[in-house]
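I'd like us to work through together how a protein chain folds, taking it slowly. To get us started, please write out a protein record for me. Go ahead whenever you are ready, and we will take it from there:
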Amino acid sequence: MGQAIHAGRTGRPWLRMRQYVFHTKGDVCCWCGHPGAGDINHDDGWANSPETRMDPDRMSPIHGVYGGGCPYCPWVWSRKLGRMAPVICNSVVGKQPLAVALAKRARQQAARSLDW
């Protein structure tokens, strides 16, 4: 019998892959560029590429819930918590592929720079 598609983020295969990604790519967040990432992100998006979900070459370090968010980015107001909270870069990227999220952010920053 084969491996379950979604074995969770606590199983031994996931933890080994996570360890491998940090060993090969370091702990610099792929979204904000700050060190101290404590989670990994699927570059193609989890739902978009089921056949490459466990491919460590298609993953990058990111600040996620498990790492407690980015210690360098300014905190933001969390409606869910009702208080200020650290930025969770993985939540900002969401389910879209990383390349799409980075391109969208670049367009927004370019539009803001023209506004002043």
In short: The beta strands are 39-42, 59-62, 76-78, 83-85.
